[in-house]
Specification:
The complex is a heterodimer of chains A (345) and B (341).
Chain A (H helix, E strand, L loop, with lengths): L1 H10 L2 H22 L1 H4 L8 E2 L2 E2 L21 H37 L1 H16 L2 H16 L3 H28 L2 H8 L4 H13 L3 H21 L12 H7 L10 H28 L1 H8 L15 H10 L3 H4 L4 H13 L1
Antiparallel strand pairs in A: 1-2
Chain B lengths: L7 H29 L4 H6 L5 H11 L5 H13 L13 H36 L4 H15 L2 H16 L9 H6 L7 H7 L3 H38 L2 H8 L4 H13 L1 H24 L5 H10 L3 H29 L6
The chains are: A mainly alpha (345), B mainly alpha (341).
């Protein structure tokens, strides 16, 4: 487990590694801010009074208020820190929802096929072509009336945007995996549909999800900020949100008050850039399509099939396969077939 | 695949037929989301201001007292004739909103695309040509940061850092005097000023375009940088590049004629895919620069809780995306015969 987490670092070199590392560090800083917001932020996100004394209005950054205060008498630094918690909660929830819905729909659609598959593909393609912010606006607008501007409501509005991406990837992988010999073999030994989907297909189609998830998280932070900027985000009294803070600061700029917009804005830029770097770094190492290209220049002088795989690699392949292959003797040839297939790629 | 099935007219006909169900789905989807789910749009928009009898009269006037299914088919018929309905809060037809404000959004997005292409493509070519050099890293980081930065934040920084010192306009599409002078003919202000021969007005409108177009263009150019860079890396590895080198063609010609030119073909496709992103960005840019386009209208109607207006505008945006994508696909098929098969 730990090894597989570190593999993106081991496989990259030079600049790619530095970019990935930068992304991880930036993201980690925001995650720490989100987790420990009550201890890092000096004040609450909607706290106007300290010891009964009201904070100054639009005070410039100083030793007391690191990022200054805004037009609502709030401490900007505290709101930026609390905003990290809001952003990661909303994005985490929305990615979780969309992965679950997208993966399940994709598996079902790809496995069952027929008119259901065609209908879902058409539906998802249309959703995907929709401008994402507009889609989020429609749902945020709707949920705001139905559920109020809570964190869950906004997360649900963002969920809709990202479902089609998971659906697409999982569905296409499922369609190609459905005809694979190991699925046929599973069917031959009498496995039911839900067993085939759950134990055979799921493990094979799930691999590209983390990369899409990271890149979507970056996009979702931007969309959340966009919704907040348009006043369709989270209710201001529920949580601190960067996009909303920037929109409140729109009029400050003319008066030379830059800190109320600059710090929350920079927080968005940094977190989105950090997540994008992580996502792209993961993509270059985890994505088999790109990884294959990396491996192609490696010369393969081996004449005997047995020497193709070093011991460690063979173990790694075995570990990645569903454990049923280790238990069922009938399926042994299947596993070897899979190894050969991987070599030929 | 036979030659006939790969013919251009047949491809265009196929694509045209396919967009009908797509548009139908969009219209239905937005109708269900905004008309069926929330209940009564009239009281949402003007409730509290009018008494119950007046609200009923408004509902009857808008046909909202009829069964939903009747309203739905009615609306489908309207959309088929390019009539996207009427707003509830101020009784304007969506068509007139699109005509009055569409021009501003059109010039904003076209200008942004122009900027993104002029900046993004050369940077992408350079980054790909000199892979892993300091310039490449710098350009890639520039691409990631401009894509990561929300447009409204870039817009604010522009207003603060660029507009202030240079004295550039940061709000609206033109000065009030220009708007007063120029007679609306096409409703595209820049074009109207040129038609009127009023060059001062045209210059004024142009100046107002600079910052918003750069702001939106920066968002788009990150995508071009990444795409062109990767394409150059791929074409440089291509057999034909190697073959050109083997024939003794000078390296700079190999790069320019063989690698760069082929790296630019996919840009056309990506322009089609980016229309949706551009419109999303335009909504935020317009709000930042107080731009009198469709995005600002959408924002105002969102604030007014005018479901019918939001429904009409969102449907219009989505239909525009579908139609422009279709257009780009056809252009692509004209350029690249492989697409047709």
């Amino acid at each position: 487990m730990f090894r597989s987490l570190l593999s993106p670092f081991r496989h990259t070199t030079g600049i790619a590694r530095w970019l990935l590392l930068t992304g991880v560090v930036i993201t980690a800083v925001f995650v720490i801010c989100a987790l420990f917001a009550p201890w890092i932020a000096p004040l609450d996100f909607n706290q106007r009074y300290v010891d009964g004394v009201k904070l100054p209005k639009q005070a410039p950054p100083s030793g007391e208020f690191w990022f200054g205060t805004n037009d609502q008498f709030y401490d900007v630094f505290s709101r930026v820190v609390w905003g990290a918690r809001t952003a990661l909660m909303v994005v985490g929830l929305s990615i979780l929802f969309s992965v679950v819905i997208g993966v399940v729909l994709g598996l079902i659609s790809g496995f069952i096929g027929g008119w259901l598959d065609r209908l879902l593909v058409f539906l998802m393609d249309t959703l995907y072509a929709f401008p994402s912010l507009l889609l989020a606006i429609v749902f945020a607008f709707l949920f705001k009336d139905l559920l109020g501007g809570s964190i869950v409501a906004v997360a649900m509005a963002l969920t809709v945007i990202y479902i089609p991406q998971y659906f697409r990837v999982v569905r296409n992988t499922t369609v190609s995996a459905r005809e694979a010999t190991y699925v046929e073999a599973a069917r031959a030994i009498g496995a039911r549909n839900h067993t085939i989907i759950g134990r055979y297909l799921f493990g094979n189609v799930i691999q590209s999800v983390p990369v899409i998830g990271t890149l979507n998280a970056a996009d979702a932070i931007g969309t959340l900020a966009g919704l907040g900027f348009l006043g369709l985000g989270i209710q201001p009294n529920e949580a601190a949100e960067w996009g909303y803070d920037v929109s409140r600061a729109l009029d400050d700029m003319g008066a030379g008050i830059w800190w109320t917009a600059f710090f929350p804005g920079m927080a968005i830029v940094l977190l989105v850039a950090g997540l994008t770097l992580v996502g792209e770094g993961l993509n270059e190492t985890v994505n088999p399509v790109l990884r294959k290209r990396r491996l192609l220049p490696v010369d393969m002088p081996a004449k005997e099939p047995s020497s193709y795989l070093a011991e460690g690699d063979a173990a790694a392949l075995g570990a990645g396969a569903p454990d049923v292959w280790d238990r069922e003797d009938e399926l042994r040839p299947e596993r070897e077939h899979r190894v050969r297939e991987d070599e030929s790629r | 695949m036979s030659a006939r099935s790969g013919s251009l007219p047949r491809y265009v006909a196929q694509r045209l037929l396919l967009i009908i169900p797509t548009i139908w789905l969009i219209v239905t989807f937005v109708f269900i989301m905004l008309r069926v789910a929330p209940g009564d749009p009239v009281s949402a928009a003007v409730g509290g201001k009018l008494d119950e009898a007046a609200l009923d009269a408004r509902r009857a006037a808008l046909g909202l007292d009829r069964p939903l299914i009747v309203q739905y088919f009615d609306y489908l018929g309207d959309v088929a004739t390019f009539n996207f309905g009427q707003t509830i809060s101020d009784n304007r037809s969506l068509i007139s909103i699109v005509v009055d404000n569409g021009g501003a959004t059109l010039t904003l997005t076209l200008g942004a695309f122009l900027f993104a292409l002029l900046v993004g493509i050369p940077l992408g070519l350079l980054a790909g040509r000199y892979r892993d050099s300091a310039g490449d890293v710098g350009i890639r980081i520039f691409g990631v940061v401009t894509y990561a930065a929300p447009v409204f934040f870039i817009g604010l920084l522009m207003q603060l850092l660029v507009a202030g010192p240079l004295g550039m306009p940061t709000s609206d599409i033109a000065s009030p005097i220009t708007k007063f002078e120029v007679e609306p003919v096409t409703h595209i202000l820049l074009l109207d000023a040129v038609i009127a021969g009023n060059w001062d007005a045209a210059w004024d409108v142009f100046l107002h375009h600079i910052l918003p177009c750069i702001t939106l263009g920066l968002l788009l150019c990150g995508v071009f940088i990444r795409l062109v860079r990767v394409n150059v890396l791929q074409t440089l590895k291509g057999d034909y590049v190697e073959a050109a080198r083997a024939r003794g063609i000078a390296e700079k010609h190999v790069i320019r004629r063989h690698a760069f030119r082929n790296a630019l073909v996919p840009v056309v496709t990506v322009v089609g895919l980016m229309v949706a992103l551009t419109l999303s960005g335009a909504v935020l840019t317009e709000r930042t620069f107080n731009w009198p386009g469709l995005g600002t209208q959408l924002y105002n109607y969102l604030i007014a809780r005018d479901y019918a207006a939001v429904q009409g505008l969102v449907t219009f945006f989505a239909v525009v995306v579908v139609l422009v994508s279709l257009l780009i696909d056809i252009i692509n098929a004209l350029i690249d015969p492989r697409v047709r098969y």
